[in-house]
Sequence to fold (636 residues):
Amino acid sequence: MSDVHFKRMALIGIGLLGSSIALAARREGVVDHIAIHTRSAETLARAEELGLGDSYHQDSTEAVTDADLVIVCTPVGVCEVIAKTIADHLKPGAMVTDVGSVKGSIIKQMAPHLPDHVSFIPGHPIAGTEDSGPDAGFADLFGGRWCILTPLEGEPEENVARLKGFWERLGSNVEIMDATHHDHVLAITSHLPHLIAYNIVGTASDLEMVRNSEVIKYSAGGFRDFTRLAASDPTMWRDVFLHNKEAALEMLGRFTEDLTALQRAIRWEDGDALFDLFSRTRSIRRSIIDAGQEIDASDFGRHIGEGESEAEKSNTRL
Amino acid sequence: MSDVHFKRMALIGIGLLGSSIALAARREGVVDHIAIHTRSAETLARAEELGLGDSYHQDSTEAVTDADLVIVCTPVGVCEVIAKTIADHLKPGAMVTDVGSVKGSIIKQMAPHLPDHVSFIPGHPIAGTEDSGPDAGFADLFGGRWCILTPLEGEPEENVARLKGFWERLGSNVEIMDATHHDHVLAITSHLPHLIAYNIVGTASDLEMVRNSEVIKYSAGGFRDFTRLAASDPTMWRDVFLHNKEAALEMLGRFTEDLTALQRAIRWEDGDALFDLFSRTRSIRRSIIDAGQEIDASDFGRHIGEGESEAEKSNTRL
Fold:
């Protein structure tokens, strides 16, 4: 473990990610002071009630003053405004990073405004839940998950190592890649899955031949799995699609092309084509479980402890 | 609770559903004798090793002989052959049912071949996991889940009540509807979700700009949710799409239409359209949890006990 340490960490935004960073950084003793900024007085008060930080600021320039680590944890769409606002208040030598799901746009939005005397290393922890807001955070969110850093060309090695060390202390594995590749990887592993989930839940809601109450009742047939992603924060996800437009459209195009082929296979009753696809997709879940990125439990472990007797609970299926 | 009881239950097929029925029926004492049939000698031997039944038969006609309850638990595509094979061996007064995910086709395949002296009531428990085979079964699979019965016109009320009572003993809630409506409801709540899951996993596997190892590593961004459904039994699902073709194509058409509108919203950066959809889909998950069809835990409860200290485990987030 790295012995990385920051004196004052400023969190710009205190939703699921910001609050989880606060809790994890506190638990690990990796920062001395946590300064929290959010524009909403209500959210800021809630963060204070939860004891997430040491100081609370409605003014972001106050929060970043004297901070040696600034982490932007807001929706991607407001990062340019934030960079402009905090730029003149950043301490020389401060490290500025973020947690946004898109990296190319973040660099375009923030880099031009930040002073040369700070180190700017965009980051993205691949971790989250469908919940949002300061109450949603928990210290273990990053445990065993990957965090991707996309340093700009010429960024000194030791700065990247320091931020890497910070995320490792929070429990993450860290990978370095360029922003464009990040945006492609995330378009398929995260953005397209969310878009599809939102879409199918929308389609199901709009049907006139099947009532919403029936969709809900019989959702255990598979539909319910999609509702988790479709319950994610709307502002965050709107911004993701607006700011990773090209990669999202590229992946969506490929998905639709494949789906059209599948539609044709159904129409022409090509059982072999269906069977071939359905067989080769089976192994990928096992690989994800083996890679430690998914729990090794049937049906997401839903049956563990659900309606079972105490005797059955102890006979765990994990 | 109904005091329904059967002397001999014959299970035709002993995969996830068959083995779960065997275990649940045994636990509830709702049958005296469980006769198990499967064509595969290996699977039959495994069922015997697991002690799932009282007698084991490679010949289905032997299994159904003298049975007062016959449950067909095979992929949908082989039901006609089964009906033809067992027809002459069914005891007068026997009840014949099934667990297939499609009901219109099952009726077309089976009803013409079954003798008048048996009662045929198609059924479908909306329960399952991504696992298959006799080892995948567990007694609580049906607990709190819905089971849909689609009796044919003229079926005596008391027979339907008897089968309803059987499923209630296994822990299910039971709903009666007509086969056509069932096939529409399941097309959106189960068949389309599986098709989309299989499709996106296929699309991701085929990308040349993102390696499969990266898809696996960063799957926690959302992709992994889809891999569960895409790990389901290929034969079962091929048969579902071949046998519920019209309803599946109808739902797929609506899904694609909606997705195309969403694609256009991304291309033209219509943030309001994206935000509107992403907002209205959020509440449906809460309704599903409130209806008891989903666990009330963030991120499918994945973080519970995953890499957490004992102290944190006891501070459950459920």
Remarks:
- The two ends of chain B are 30 Å apart (CA to CA).
- Chain B has 14 helices and nine strands.
- Strands of chain B lie at 6-12, 31-37, 55-57, 69-72, 95-98, 119-120, 123-125, 146-149, 173-176.
- The longest helix of chain B spans residues 179-206.
